[in-house]
Amino acid sequence: MSASDAYRARAPQDEVIYFVLPDRFANGDPRNDRGGLAGDRLKTGYDPADKGFYHGGDLKGLTARLDYIQGLGATTIWLGPIFRNKPVQGPSGHESAGYHGYWITDFTDVDPHFGTRAQLKTFVDAAHARGMKVYLDIIANHTADVIQYRDCPAAGCDYRSKADYPYVRKGGPRGAAINDGFLGDQAGRQTTENFARLTRPDYAYEPYVPKGEEAVKAPAWLNDPIHYHNRGNSRFAGESSTYGDFAGLDDLATENPRVAQDFIDIYGQWIDDFGIDGYRIDTARHVNPEFWQAFVPAMLARAKARGIPNFHIFGEVYETEPGMLAKFTRVDGYPAVLDFAFQATVTDVVNGKVGTDRLAKLFSQDALYQGGEAAARQLPTFLGNHDMGRIGHFVRAAHPEASNDELSKRVTLAHALLMFTRGAPVIYYGDEQGFTGSGGDRDSRQDMFPSKVAAYNGDVLIGGAAAAGDHFKTDAALYQAISAMARLRAADPALRGGRQVVRASDDKPGLLAISRTAGSGGETLVVFNTGQTAIAAQVEVDATSRAWRAVHGSCAATATAPGSYRVEIGPLDYMICVSEGGQ
């Protein structure tokens, strides 16, 4: 491997991931703000004063800001979906735009609001030239909302189950026979021969494509309703979680081998064409396991053939129980899942709602993942996101009377827990500037460039500054703090991907101590104080860890006794001490 390709050798747990929505980051080319479309905002999707519409950020703007992202310490950029979207959808009077990228119509092209395929290549090549990786956010569960149902009740298209509306009867079990010979879609029957017998899509509802949208999707096979479930809206429970339309979005029949193979071809081509380094899989839990069991190995093989040995795939499974998260690594075959359990736990811990023993309990369940504790080290961990909201919002909401100094310390401590415990840390764009917002979804998708959204400009950043204006300040306190953490992490293999042992925790806010070790190196001890009073305590360490040096904070030079080390740490703070091994 050449020096210019050295970044390819990094393991997934070595990365610091920066998650960004391109529309909200930087506007490098105002000419594409309307995506090449004419008309008002309901035609173009562009309205920079409305948080539910396009604001103008694009790939050219991202490319121009790579210095800023790399300066933060990020080694990988995770892009929100960049594929062509339906510009606007939603009921009359409540429309919004596809600025977020999750309403795909063309899986083979870049959305013109963001730029062109050539500009994506320029971006990826520029990142790679800096030794940075690029992950794409992908979707296989659904497309944009195009298919409609003629017999949908006025109150909405409620989910119609397979038992009440079987594939082989129109209108119910006693209805007219259709799809003669089709034997259902259970795992053993997901064959081309069986699905050839499924010729009519009107077993539950009568689907149709509105006039003018007959060819809006690409590849062309996506325009045929036979490749969708057409059972109405998901209730996000039971069978409907897999077969129902996600908030009206057209739910693909991913158990059909034609659909599965074509998505393997689609996303394999993006790897071939651009050298993408990983995929984050949206709505992963809403797709049948057999799809992922075929898709994941195919993507890893495609990447390996392209010279990408550490291609990272992680699914979005919005679940806070480690056992449920681990199930998707064991059954569906995801190499990793976004660690929602970590997010929920660390938020409560840093806010003082629970003791640090909750994190110890969380880490003790790492053995549940396929591959055990070692596999858990590559789970992407995070503090907040574009759906649930930002860590700054969670901290401020939990401490409405707190001073700016306390809020800053808690958010900084949250990032230290993110950066120095096991996992691949994900920084949500703007958190490094102290963005807070007033909640999730649109309220957590602020502009980095000067915004025209009144609600965004009315926010108060962590630290107390007003939110209006430009947000690429490399001297911002949180930017500086996170950048320093990233440098410490990069310099120590133990902090990146080392084995983790919890040394001390408490059933109340206060002490959490962990040791990280890698290879034949010494022990790295990271100590956190989530309480509001100083702590002095003895912490167990390896008996050979005698001489110590400070990396962050004030560390004693020697162990008190073999296997025992004294730590003193202030409120809402952390320290890092490194032993060089036996002395």
Q: How many helical elements?
A: 17
Helix content estimate:
25-40%
Query: How large a portion of the residues is in β-strands, by DSSP E?
Result: 15-25%
Radius of gyration: 25 Å
Q: Mean pLDDT across all residues, rounded?
A: 97
Q: From the coordinates shown, what is the CATH architecture of the domain at 339-491?
A: Alpha-Beta Barrel
Structural class based on helices, strands and sheet pairing: alpha/beta
What is the CATH domain class of the domain at 339-491? Alpha Beta
| Principal-axes shape call | globular
Q: What are the segments in which pLDDT stays under 50 over at least 5 consecutive residues?
A: none
Number of strands: 23
Largest sheet: 8 strands, parallel
Superfamily (CATH H level) name of the domain at 339-491: Glycosidases
Distance between the termini: 37 Å
CATH topology of the domain at 339-491: TIM Barrel
Widest β-sheet, arrangement of strands: 14-13-12-7-2-1-16-15
